[in-house]
Amino acid sequence: MREITYSEALREAIRQAMLKDKKVIMIGEEIGQGYAGVFGVSKGLYDEFGPKRIIDTPIAENTIMGAAIGTSMLGLKPIMEVMFADFISVCFDGVLNQISKMRFMTKDQYSLNLVVRLPGGEGAGTGPHHSQCLESLFMTIPGLKLANPSNAYDAKGLLTTAISAGDPVLFFEHKRLYKTKCDVPEEEYAIPFGKAKIVRVGSDITIVALSYMVSVALAAAEELSKEYGIEAEVVDPRTLVPLDEETIAASVKKTSRIAIVEETYLRGGIGSEIGAIVSEKYMDALDCPIKRIASKNVPIPMPASLKDEVIPDKDRVVKEIREMF
Amino acid sequence: MKYDEKLYLTFLEKLYLVRRFENKVYEFAERGLVFGSTHLEVGEEATAVGTLLNINKDDYMIATHRGHGQELLKGTDLKAMMAEMIGKATGICGGRVGSMHVTDISVNNLGAQGIIGATFPIAVGVGLGLNLLSDKDKILIAFFGDGATNQGTFYESLNMADIWSVPVFFVCVNNLYGMGTHYCSTCNIEIYKKASFFNIKSGFCDGNDVGAVYEKSKELIDYVRSKRRPAFLELKTYRTIGHSAFDKHPYRTKEEIEEWKRLDPIKRAEELMLSLGTAKDKIDDVKKKVDAQIQEAAAFALESAYPAYEASLEQ
């Protein structure tokens, strides 16, 4: 097998879907001519598929979202790229009141294939308007599926599933992952939603980590093992909605401890939700309080001296987990 | 336009259907059968009738929150419409959403908007979809009110409607008030002029004159269909009852309402028909037919059951 980057894996998923199904299109700012995607995901696709499949737009997220909604209503399968995940605020009505409610409101008259790709996270020192992880904002809205690939293999497989999911999918990517590589099969494959992956087996604590934080959790787990003899099991949910509660529960029952590591803000975060589920249903399995390790409740700052304090890193994960023993 | 009795009898039947439907919904609201609010278009019927008689069954439509007439005339079954109004399982959307959100894909009604201004981006998207699918037979008619034209989406979407040359007929039902706020106090530019700023062919017409609405729509719809370009029509009209069925309209005078009742589209159509020689019996027959249909639909709705909760609704 060959290694390719997360960006290349996303592109391969889009390209293979577009070759197989003429209904798959891409819509967004600077995705065709110009930059070919600010993170290069759509590089080469405009030349291959032309302006009727790779659709450049003005800077107008509301109407870009409307274009995705309207085309999907007619049976097309749009993949909308929001240049930076933060910009979804501009077209929030489309997410909150339109795509998420359409199946319910019409009593299943619609089954929309619509993917909204959201490059999020800190990674370029771009400050408060271009660096956020926002998954937790959308977890609360019924009717959306949330995918969160942490590596190139999952990126390709989850995006393939998302493109034909029959429900709107918010697809959360991470800036720090675009250049990371791993083994990715050349042929098309789909990873089902709602199936977590145990990325490290351990017996002493369950760490649920998401997106880029999976690699942070793995690095912390290695140090915890080497320096302190603590064996962490790292679980990557891969999709937040639907959430593979079963895999998380089985791991917690084995380890009796759980920490959730995320780049989303602490308050009302993913850890708040997963932690609440665990405390409601699996309290008996726990030996100590649940730990949420998340970005502090601070807008993401620009300089390293500040942002390194806000966003969890390996040292913070190690320190906070040691306190649980 | 030369008087065409058959066409005017069709106008009258449709106008009267919408009026009687709205009267029945109002009655249901007073009886406490409509949960929450309902927006009626009494007085505005000609805007839906005159436009939609030029629209084909497989053309697409987006309706407004005040869209019962639009939805009925696009072809949704009267009984399923009536049942939806009072939240019954036999409603077109299973009774889940009621008055404000009728969607019926079987007649290409893509849905009614509860979010003012959300129509425009989706309308552009549907038009783009038609272009991408090279579907040159269909167009979209998108209804919205005067209030929606002050949302930011209106401006960015009209720009994109122009650059993407979408086959969309934008119809502004200007009933003078966004809830209780007069449209002249929210913008100094006439609404149809805002559209012409974006190179969009734009027109204006008396929305209470069904013949005029029909003629003007025909011209603009023919243009959209043949040129595959957007067009825009502002129809000035008036709702002679409140914003919602429970609105006592403190923001306008009795005199104003009476003046507009004098311009009632049904009254005007009937007077014109009688003056041009149509027999009163013919008019009465149309009304009787509609009354029977409304009665039957209302009975069906009342007899139907409420939807039951299912765990599968959780997403």
Entry keywords:
heterodimer, A: 325 residues, alpha/beta, Rossmann fold, 2 domains, seven-stranded mixed sheet, five-stranded mixed sheet, 12 helices, 14 strands, 20% strand, B: 315 residues, six-stranded parallel sheet, two-stranded antiparallel ribbon, 11 helices, 8 strands
CATH top level assignment of the largest domain in chain A:
Alpha Beta
The CATH topology of the largest domain in chain A: Rossmann fold
How many structurally independent domains of chain B? 1
The major β-sheet of chain A equals: 7 strands, mixed
The number of helices of chain B is 11
Please give a structural write-up:
The complex is a heterodimer of chains A (325) and B (315). Chain A has helices at residues 6-20, 45-49, 61-73, 92-99, 102-105, 135-139, 152-163, 213-228, 245-255, 270-281, 304-310, 314-322, and strands at residues 2-5, 24-28, 54-56, 77-81, 115-120, 145-147, 169-174, 181-184, 197-200, 205-209, 232-236, 239-241, 258-265, 291-295. Chain A folds into two domains: 2-184, Rossmann fold, CATH 3.40.50; 197-322, Rossmann fold, CATH 3.40.50. The longest helix of chain A is centred in the last third of the chain and has 16 residues, at 213-228. Chain A contains twelve helices and 14 strands. By secondary structure, chain A is α/β, with parallel strands linked by helices. In chain A, helix 8 links the parallel strand 10 (205-209) and strand 11 (232-236). In chain A, the strands form three sheets. In chain A, strands 3-2-4-5-7-6-12 form a seven-stranded mixed β-sheet, sandwiched between helices. In chain A, strands 9-11-10-13-14 form a five-stranded mixed β-sheet, sandwiched between helices. Chain A has a two-stranded antiparallel ribbon with strand order 1-8. In chain B, strand 7 (201-206), helix 8 and strand 8 form a beta-alpha-beta unit. Chain B is an alpha/beta fold and 315 residues long. The model of chain B has no long low-confidence stretch (mean pLDDT 95). In chain B, the strands form two sheets. In chain B, strands 2-1-3-4-8-7 form a six-stranded parallel β-sheet. Chain B has a two-stranded antiparallel sheet with strand order 5-6. Chain B has helices at residues 5-30, 45-52, 68-74, 78-85, 119-132, 152-163, 191-196, 210-227, 254-262, 265-275, 280-303, and strands at 60-63, 109-112, 140-145, 168-174, 177-178, 181-182, 201-206, 231-236. In chain B, helix 2 runs parallel beside helix 3 and helix 2 (45-52) packs across helix 8 (210-227). Chain B has one domain (5-300): 3-Layer(aba) Sandwich (Rossmann fold), CATH 3.40.50. The longest helix of chain B has 26 residues, at 5-30. The termini of chain B are far apart. Chain B has eleven helices and eight strands. Chain B is globular. The interface between A and B is large, with 38 and 37 residues.
